[in-house]
Amino acid sequence: MKTADRVAALLLMGICVYGWITSRLFSPLSALFPQVIVLILGGLSLLLFILSLFRSPDEPRFVLVHGRVLPVVLTVAMMVAWVALISLLGFLATSLLIFSLMTVVLERKQRTGIQIILRIVAVCAVMVAFYLFFDRLLLVSFPRGLLL
Amino acid sequence: MNELFLTSIGSLFTATNLLLVLLGVVAGIVVGALPGLTATMAIALLVPFTFTMQPVHGLILMGAIYVASIYGGSFSAILLNTPGTPSAIATTFDGYPMAKRGQSYQAIVTATVASVFGGLIGVFFLLFLSPPLSRLSLRFGPPEFFWLTTFGLTIIATLSTKSILKGLIGGAFGLLLSMIGIAPIEGSVRFTFGSISLQNGIALIPALIGFFCIPEVIGMIERKAEHYTAIPYRRQRRVLWGVLIHIVRKPLLMIRSAVIGTIVGIIPGAGGNIAAMVSYNEAVRASRNPEQFGKGSMDGVVAAEASNNAEVSGSLIPLLTLGIPGAPPAAVLLGALLLHGLRPGRELFTYHGAVTYTFMLSLVLANILILPVGIFSGRWISRLVTRLPVTLLAPMVFFLSVIGSYAINRNMFDVFVMLGFGLIGYVGRRMKIHPGPIVLGLILGSICEQGLVQSILMGRASGSVLAMFFTRPLSILLISLTLLSAAWPFIAGAIRRRQAGRKA
Q1: Which of B305, B384, B370 is nearest to B25 (CA)?
Q2: How far is B315 from B61, CA to CA, in rounded Å?
């Protein structure tokens, strides 16, 4: 964990330096609070960095993913793709595509093709119901793209 | 107040309101019972569904979900040894041993009855403390608001995480995030990186959805098992009567736990998990048979559940009177209040009094409804908990997160904000920087900044900035509380070491 703490501390100190430099361009009263907080955050980050230097070498290592790594990586990738593709393909099309993909990829049991198709159909039905609820009842117009 | 109170009782009993309370209680229990789905997440996802509703309807639904999901957490705590919500962590200590002994039904009934009584005591305090406190809020000037937000951030930093340093870093980081956009005083455009979308600042609800939902989604995927394995849940006769007698015979346990829950709820930022732990420890200390705790003691379940349900109403007291959320779900409720054009403070108890009292009274109804719904639907809920695959649940929560963050401003940028903060929240949790302090910093940032800058301006005008900050009576009280909360972990550590030394 100490390496992760050091990286986080350095990152935060970098943010603070940026915040301090940028805040000098603000009007005096707009700059006051950011400068106070940047100083506090910078000081705390420095303290975290210093304390991490004195930690025991036996301290447990930082683990980003506990348990199943590949599904987590795939999930995050699909989440990013979901959000990124909405503007291109349209909200409903992207959601149906990625949700179906997630359901298949994350499946842990061996299932027959029919079972998988049934699950995808069920998932799609729920999703379309939510979409229609927002689109037709709450009049929230979701982004449309090349598809839906 | 009396007139408003009576009018609100009348307006609560409409078919729509009653249906919303029932719907909220059922949905809340299900959400709370599913491990990984928290009360905060449920309310955050619900906000966009409520924004076309009348404010009172939206608040009633969210209040019922809040109350019921905190109770619902006891199902998985008792049947799976996994708290459905963080508030139910202390329920596992005795609830699960009871279930292992074949008393799962008795444990659920105990948790239900304790939640109902605890919740009702909490609502009693909410109803009778909030109006005078809202009058007191009129005495709060910029220095008091500055110190109140400082107190809130200090206490959540010290209570919510094991490392005070990381808690404080989280709070300061949240404050930094709150400054993005146009400054409230003098209007400089700050930290927007040239983006027009950021000029209005970070949208609160998408940020909250991100911080509270995305880490849970990823957490669900991390788990090795697809389904949870639960201890069987079978209904037994005459258990409810026995539990009622047990609780009535120990009124002090119930009252003490509910009062602790309410007080912890009032403290800004401290959540139901802290309330339940403090209450459980006090129950152990006060018990004649402390050795029975942790081995399936009904009193342990009563202490934990009465306290965490009382905390719900406690957390609403500072929220409704001062705009300072007492717990993370209350922080989301603050976003919902603002979305509906309701500003916390005295106005909420005068101009919007009918809405506020109806909302508070609906919590009484929600707490009472927990009893029949919880007891009669227990079997189906336990089945759902064990049968719903997380591989289906996780994408569904993410889908709702996307909808929820988009629907409020109809802006794709908010979806990116949600995802970005979700990933930051996930990495932060792994680094033991919990989202609680960050979110509180984000919410309290503008109040804190306005308090600081306006106090300085007032101080300059009156001739002494220091006097403005340090001599007003309420400020002195808040400064003392801030110092005490900052020093408390060290004081508690010293007390523990001294006690250990004496025993040795």
Answers
A1: B370
A2: 17
Instruction: Flag whether B183 is in a domain.
Output: yes
Tens digit of each residue's pLDDT (9 = 90 or more) over B424-477: 999 988 888 888 788 888 888 988 999 999 999 999 999 889 999 999 999 999
Residue environment code for B388-413, b if the CB has 16+ CB neighbours within 10 A, otherwise e: bbbbbbbbbbbbbbbbbbbbbeebbb
Burial of A62 (0-12, 13-18, 19+ CB in 10 A): middle
Interface test with B, best of A11, A38, A39, A44 (most B CBs within 10 A): A44
Q: Do A29 and B185 touch (CB under 8 A)?
A: yes
Residues of A in contact with B452 (CB under 8 A): 32-33, 36
Dist CA B339 CA B323 (whole Å) = 13
Residue in chain A lying closest to B399 (CA): A95
Q: Which of residues 136-165 of B touch A (CB under 8 A)?
A: 165
User: Residues 197..216 of B with a Cβ closer than 8 Å to A: which?
Assistant: 214
DSSP result, B359-425: HHHHHHHHHHHHHHHHHHSHHHHHHHHHHS-HHHHHHHHHHHHHHHHHHTTT-HHHHHHHHHHHHHH
Min CA distance, B184 vs chain A (Å)?
8
Chain A: closest CA distance from residue B461 (Å): 15
Cβ–Cβ contact A86 with B under 8 A: yes
In a domain, B30, yes or no: yes
What ipTM does this complex have?
0.90
For residue A101, give the chain B residue with the closest CA.
B395
Indicate the number of domains in chain B. Answer: 1
Residue of B nearest to A8 (CA): B431
Q: Does A145 lie at the interface with B, CB-CB under 8 angstroms?
A: no
Which residue range is the domain that position B346 belongs to? 2-492
Does B240 reside within a domain? Answer: yes
- Does B500 map to a domain? no
- Name the DSSP letter for residue B35: T
Digit-coded pLDDT (tens) for A97-145:
988 888 888 776 667 778 888 888 888 888 888 888 778 876 777 888 7
Q: Which two tokens stand for residue A47?
A: 């303290």
Q: How would you write B318-334 as a 3-class SS string?
A: HHHHHCCCCCHHHHHHH
Closest of B182, B101, B263, B202 to residue B439, by C-alpha: B202
Whether the pLDDT of residue B489 is over 80: the answer is: no
Measured distance CA(B437)–CA(A43) in Å, rounded: 17
The letter for the amino acid at B260 is I
Residues of A in contact with B448 (CB under 8 A): 33
